Amino acid sequence: MNGTPAQIWRFGSFVFNEATSELSRNGKAVPIEPQSLLLLGYLIRHRDRVVSREDLVDAIWQGRAVSDWAISGAIKALRVALGDTEAERQFVRTIHSRGYRFVAQATSTPPEGQPQKPPMILVRIFRMPHQENGLEYLAEGLAEDLITGLSGRPSWRVLSYNTARALAESVPSAEYGVTTIIDGSIRQSADTIRINVSVLDGSGTQQAWAESFDLTPNSLLAGHDMICERLIAVLSPGEPARRSRQRGTLDPAAYDHYQKGRYAYFRYEPKAFIAALDNFTKATEIDPTYANAYAQQAYCRTTLYVFGLPGADKTLDAAEALARKAIEIDGESALGHARLGWVLGYCGKPAETIAAFETALRFDPDNAEVYHAYGETMNRLAQPQKAAPLLETVFSKDSYFPPSWEFPQGHTEILLGHHDRAIEHFNSVLDRLERFIPARVQLVRTLWETGNKTDARQNVAAIRTFAPNYSLAHVARMFPYPDKVEKARLINALADAGLG
Q1: What percent of the chain is predicted at pLDDT more than 90?
Q2: What is the dihedral of CA 379, 384, 387, 389, to 10 degrees?
Q3: Residue 92 and residue 124 in one domain
Q4: What CATH number has the domain bearing residue 67?
Q5: Other Cβ atoms closer than 10 A to 313
Q6: 3-state helix/strand/coil string of 295-326
Q7: Which residue among 62, 176, 305, 454 is least crowded, i.e. fewest CB within 10 A of its CB?
Q8: Do residues 79 and 125 both lie within one domain?
Q9: pLDDT tens digit string along 307-348?
């Protein structure tokens, strides 16, 4: 790390091998996420002092804006891995108002023969000419496909899609241990889509390999697999190629609409939700066996219903039917089960909701998005004690996440009665995504309950600006708490603050 040789660190009953990124306790491997290992290595190497949050942001997050929740969540995940859960911390202590310090005795020795860490790969979002802005969905879709196709191999590790988006074109710090960067660009001329791909070293300055691929809209789906296979051959010569995980369709036109739908949905704008639903619907019209496209339709229809947007259904019956159709087509679709859980959470069916999410995690146990949806659904069922550990797992599975992903953490805090922490989370979301209505709604409730009535009314005014027709009926639909007391707290606070 930071240019210093990797070490084998021994502390307590633990052994941490930096060279192989392995942590063991009494000779047995300890399950731990890469982000937690980064923190552990940094804290051990700087154990002679208190490490501030600013130090961690600079070293681990490369100076990017991250919330206190992200840092606290990372520290908590590390403590859980170490079993450091007693009141008197054995390994990582919080120094009030200053930061954190590794307090255990630690010794180090160089690994015999200095074995190499498995290469760490960063797949950047592919660049495109400014005049070809319509290709963004292809650029993000290709990066996501390559990350999926390269992941799950013992030969190397791959940074997550959200991390790739957050790092953009920057060179990752040494703390990430990135040894290889996959870089590239996309441009289109008539029906030809040219994809340039290159393999760079971890500094992004030396190119080891490059190749161009000329594809057409009809060959794009197969082209993604071909590019992935070429990368595997370059990164690990002689390793047998393995097809990427089935995307659920072999039809390139259906897949194209699916990618457009996914790209539109995560813009988090009313018109974008409608565009997303339209594209997911077209995907299933082209390929009626496309399970994940049905699942995403269920997600879009739920969003339109909850927000009361134009074109919304009057009930969630259609959304539930679409999610169940996805599962009928592909019983192992983690996305299908997760979307069913999301819908059922709004329908007030807690037992079925939990069963659906647990099934999704059984099929895809490392999916941060599923943990996130599961945690927020537990909040909507007024079960914050169950939501909290699920939301903490989100961070351990994915170092970076969209701004809206912090909202459920604030939701948990207000349900637990921790007003100050809730306000911090909601403000953090709104600083980066000011139109995110759920955060505005819960912020109004939190401010009103703490006696800050002026700010509460100002946020009601902001809601009316962004969503003129939003009402208490929408609030009840968005947060269908089965607990009558919890529901009354929310509705009364919003009504008193001026939301009609």
Answers
A1: 52
A2: 160
A3: no
A4: 1.10.10.10
A5: 12
A6: HHHHHHHHHHHHHCCCCCCCCCHHHHHHHHHH
A7: 454
A8: no
A9: 888 889 999 999 999 999 999 999 999 999 999 999 999 998
Cα–Cα distance measured from residue 38 to residue 70, given in angstroms and rounded to the nearest whole number: 14
**Pair 267, 321 in one domain:** yes
What's the CA gap between 140 and 164, in Å, rounded? 10
Check residues 397 and 126 and name the one with the higher pLDDT: 126
Q: Tell me the pTM.
A: 0.76
Beta bridge partners of 104: none
- How do strand 178-189 and strand 120-123 relate by DSSP bridges? parallel
Q: Are residues 277 and 342 in the same domain?
A: yes
Look up the domain containing 342 and give its range. 248-365
Question: Are 87 and 149 in a shared domain?
Answer: no
Q: What is the pLDDT of residue 64?
A: 64
Measure the CA–CA gap between 426 and 439, rounded to whole angstroms. 5
Confidence of residue 298 (pLDDT cuts 50, 70, 90): very high
pLDDT score at 2? 46
Q: What is the band of 85 on the pLDDT scale with cuts at 50, 70, 90?
A: confident
Question: Distance between CA 272 and CA 278 in Å, rounded?
Answer: 10
- Given pLDDT bands bounded at 50, 70 and 90, which one contains residue 293? very high
